[in-house]
């Protein structure tokens, strides 16, 4: 099974792939670790929130990349 992140703007519009890294992961833990290391780069690239997908099924999300301040 493949795990991927769907990248979105704050209103849920999908972020185009240009300039935003796309990865596929073997496990949920690998996907979450990658996000923990790369969320700042995603935010700088125009991503406001992410959704974790297992194949085509939503595991959870959308989850904001912005701080809760």
How does this model look, in words?
The protein is of the alpha+beta class and 69 residues long. The protein has a domain at 1-9 and 24-51. The protein has 1 helix and 3 strands; from the N terminus they run βαββ. It has one helix at 28-44; strands at 3-8, 49-54, 57-64. A 3-stranded antiparallel beta sheet has the order 1-2-3, covered by helices on one side. β2 and β3 (57-64) form a beta hairpin. The model has no long low-confidence stretch (mean pLDDT 91).
Q: Segments where pLDDT lies below 50 for 5+ residues? A: none
Radius of gyration, taken over Cα atoms and rounded to an integer in Å: 11 Å
Q: Can you count the beta strands?
A: 3
Which outline best applies?
globular
Oligomer: single chain
Helix content: 10-25%
Total number of helices: 1
Q: Average pLDDT across residues? A: 91
- Largest sheet: spatial strand order: 1-2-3
Main β sheet profile: 3 strands, antiparallel
| Helix/sheet category | alpha+beta
- Strand proportion, as a percent range, falls in 25-35%
The end-to-end span amounts to 36 Å
Summarize the helix and strand pattern as letters.
EHEE
């Amino acid at each position: 099974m493949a795990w991927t992140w769907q990248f979105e703007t704050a209103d849920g519009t999908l972020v185009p792939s240009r300039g935003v890294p796309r990865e596929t992961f073997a496990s949920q833990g690998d996907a979450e670790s990658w996000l923990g290391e790369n969320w700042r780069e995603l935010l700088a690239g125009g991503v406001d929130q992410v959704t974790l997908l297992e194949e085509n099924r939503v595991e959870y999300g959308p989850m904001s990349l912005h701080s809760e301040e």
